[in-house]
């Protein structure tokens, strides 16, 4: 299955990309543990800012942006991560999902996550990001992940609390994705099935 990660970090390196990578790794690991196979593609919106702006002006997406939109809309699942500015998602993040269209993510499993300088902005996940994807009729995981500056240890390591949230959210997304691919979890076919009439005959005296 295909998992697409959309990250709207503006700097390089960025804590937004760092969180996106942690979520993608954890989700892929859970899918593989369940016997599935997953291909992950990361989309850096920072590199597409000009393409997105041009789409609003011209009404047409260029080839590079069109390829990214196709990847996001055809993916089996999405991980969407944005920095929080002024208590909401970034303008670049919102603009990307504006150009995708209202019907492109219907029924698609999505894990939402965000980063910010302080934990005070964590509610932006619930009052801004979750309603956005509910409007797009995506299926959002119950657990959303927010990472403030204090949630990162030395060398970009996640603290225990953040690691727990990442693992829980990744498990929820992996569960949604594997349920959409039941063939991967189907039990092995029964061998030598005895017809019901034969079983009844064996019970007669």
TrEMBL record:
The keyword Ribosomal protein does not apply. NCBIfam families: LLM_duo_CE1759. It comes from the Bacteria. It holds the Pfam family FMN_red. Residues 1-152 form the NADPH-dependent FMN reductase-like domain. InterPro entries: CE1759_FMN_reduct (IPR023932), Flavoprotein-like_sf (IPR029039), FMN_Rdtase-like_dom (IPR005025), NAD(P)H-dep_FMN_reductase (IPR051814). The keyword NAD does not apply. One of its GO terms (molecular function) is oxidoreductase activity. It comes from Nonomuraea cavernae. SUPFAM superfamilies: Flavoproteins. This is Oxidoreductase. Keywords: Flavoprotein, FMN, Oxidoreductase.
